[in-house]
Every structure is written in C-alpha cells, then in structure tokens.
Amino acid sequence: xxxxxxxxxxxxxxxxxxxxxxxxxxxxxxxxxxxxxxxxxxxxxxxxxxxxxxxxxxxxxxxxxxxxxxxxxxxxxxxxxxxxxxxxxxxxxxxxxxxxxxxxxxxxxxxxxxxxxxxxxxxxxxxxxxxxxxxxxxxxxxxx
Length: 144
Known about the structure:
- There is one protein chain.
- The protein is about 50% helix and about 15% strand.
- By secondary structure, it is an alpha+beta fold.
- The strands form 2 sheets. The chain has a 4-stranded antiparallel beta sheet with strand order 3-4-6-5. The chain has a two-stranded antiparallel sheet with strand order 1-2.
- Strand 3 and strand 4 form a beta hairpin.
- Helix 2 packs across helix 3 and helix 5 runs antiparallel to helix 7.
- The radius of gyration is 15 Å and the shape is globular.
C-alpha cells in the first residue's frame, strides 16, 4: 500500500509489482498507473509523451489493441466506461519508457523520479522471475 508523508508518497515493492503486466512478451506498465506514481493526470502524462514522441520509440511504449485491453480489463479492476472510464485505448510503457517519462514530465514527483526508477526497475526484473504470477495477455489474445 502507498504510504504518504505530507507530499511524499512511498510505494511498496509489491504495489509496483502488481502493476507490471506481460503483454506481447514484454513487461509493461499502464499509463494510468504510471500517472498515479508520478502524481499527474493520465491525460497530462499522455500529452507530454505526444509532445516528445521522438523520445518514445516502439521499444519504449505502445498502445494496446482493443482485444488486449478487453482481456486486461477482465483480469484487473479498471473503471467502467459507463462511469467516466477511459475513452481511448491505453498506452503501456516498458522499463525504458518509464525511465524516459521521468525526463519529459515536469511534475514535482518526476523531479525526484530517480527514486521511482530505482524502485520500478528492479521490480521489472523481479516480476520476470515471478512470471507465473504475472498475467500473460498475449496467450489470452492468441488463444494459446
């Protein structure tokens, strides 16, 4: 669970691991989860990515397909579209994309993002070792 001490929010390693998914055989995090970690709105995060799109090649981020998103929604709790949920398919970010986000976001949280990077980066690695616990969306999409 996240702990807050005035303006500083600290996330447990297990909180971050729960937000890492394997999609297309790549470990990624949703834009909305990263926005929460960085303390910005999802739309603001995506605006900054679009303004700096040359810094985000396909190896850093990609947009989920409708099928991938529906399968992900069935496995985790994402707000219903009927209640003001997402109107666009989400972007997902690889470990390198997470690091690049800290460079393009201008939030107070992102200025101390090396702490987040030090927390998230090892979790990408440990999440790989705990792959049996990670939902592999690709297998569901391809009916493997």
